[in-house]
Amino acid sequence: MSAMLTQQFAVVFIVAVIAGSIPLMLASLGETVGEQSGVLNLGIEGMMLIGGYVAFAVTLASGSFWWGMLAGGIAGLACGALFALLSVWMGLNQIVVGIAITLAGEGITSVLYDKEYSDTSPRLGLPDALSIPLLSKIPAFGESVFSQSAFFWMALAAAGVVAWWLSSTNPGLRNRAAGQMPASLDAAGGSVLRTRSWAVLAGGLFAGLGGAYLALISTGAFTPFMTNGVGYIAIIVTMLSRGRIRWVLVVSGVYGLTIALGTAMQLTTISLPTDVIQMFPFIVVMAMLVIYARGSYVPPALGTPYVRGAR
Amino acid sequence: MAALTLSGCSSTSSSSAASSAAPAASEAAPAASEAAPASSAAPACDAEAVTKFAVVTPEKESDYGWNQQGIQGAQAAGTALGIEADVNSGVGYDNTQSILSQVADKGNQFIIAHASGFSDAAKQVADANDVPVLTMDVDQLEPGKVASVMFDAQEGGYLAGIAAADASKTGTVGIVASAEDVNWFKMSGGFIQGARSVNPDIKVVIAYIGPAGYGDSAGGQRIASQVIASGADVVFGMGDGATVGYLQAIENAPADQNVQYIATIGDVAPIDAKGVAMTSVRWNFADAFQQAIEDVNTCQYGTRNYTLSVANGGLSLQDSPKLSAETKAAVEKATADIGSGSLVVETATTKDAVQALIDK
User: Exposure check for chain B: N or C terminus, fewer CB within 10 A?
Assistant: First the structure.
């Protein structure tokens, strides 16, 4: 137990919380935008893997985390475009298309990794830290939170932008209208298909960035299936947060905290089965759902393709 | 890492090493196996000698661990016996029975089902296709059809513990495991005992990724980082793809802590660009596979299992320039003592048993 009371351990613990939270938060942001527009994207897990793989490959080739992160986002965007084409424009079942993209993402990235990198299992090291003057000197908290890479701050900024965009801009309101009353949006002159397409593209972009963050920053490497269900958890977080970005932040943070806490508890004299530790974040999320989100509201048109004039 | 006196094998020289080690292992094999009938008591054998056999692995050879060693062991056994080894890697855990049946239909006269998760399907295939099958870590015997490879993994862990305690400057060593796997428990228990044999006061910290986090590199990075932050300067790691995460954490640990890594099963030197790996507990399957095929040829197959142990060379600590002369001497003495039976390493087969050893 005494080893856990050191400053070094506190720094690593907080870094682990952040490493677990941010990929989930980014993916959940994208899913929130998509769900608010009425599109249920179950392909988020596959999009994260594709984003993570592409980001890893580009970073490795270019030596730049920036190029890698950009490439991961673009890869996610491309997946989003495919999803939009199939489910929004062609009206195919969103659940089927989403699962197909997830399975394809898992398979493609696994095959490519085995072919290109499995012999060497390369690692990326760490990105440059962006130390905030003075604040980064605060023991433990400053050394962890205020010494993160620039990507951490950009992710938080993205959450702020999405929150503002969804609640305070005309495009954001149109996005929500597409999920709540698409026919009204159509009657008011808005394009449901175009609105949903942009939302799905944003969802793909954020999923790709989430995967990229997981591979480049949280892990420093890519391995097949490395998301381990984070994409699915993002869907739960989105449902739980009911379109409110502050709840996305809170639940993602709780998830990261419980993940890190699970390891920390093993290092104490507390001996818990790892099954329990693995369940811990989900139990916490479910508890929060029961306590705070019993009236959980999902857009009425969620998962329903829009066909003009259809009743 | 070179393969010298301690290990006698490396990823690039398994075949020759296995060949050279074969006689010793053959001598030791009966002692390490179960219920082997005397040759004189064996029934008249009209079995057709195996000329082609298969190894089937759930993942690819590039894991630098279980799958790599299984494939290399099969190839070494094939070379030693002068027969063809048909490698079927990366088959996963779905449709195992049909995959094994297809492998049998390819004309293979013996199949190594290289995963404990293949055992049930392998037994069914052996019965249905009349092809002898070798399973992993499941104590089951069926004359002429099924036998298994068993592991005294705690003995290998003990050797690693000696090396870790000798190298540790902080007095804390760590164990990171990807899964709650019985062999990981055995290895961990042996590691703790080995470390305490050198330094009774050494502190051991342990963390698991999850029940089956074999490929969870992010989880590996997370638990290894926290174990290192707990003061461990030598980390003993177990677990396929999670190893990438362990290495990432160790490579980026504070430089003044000089954290070193002890791998398991395979040789991680090819992926250890920054030279953090001190050594590895190597698992050499070649002799066990060879013995099993010879038993098929002599109609004794299915009457005993085959054990990888320190005594028969199935488990060993890989030699490395990073091991001090004192460490090598201590490891060699422990190897000899285990071989002679004067040192018996306690076996921990559950998480609680491992924790009890830590708390002792």
Answer: C
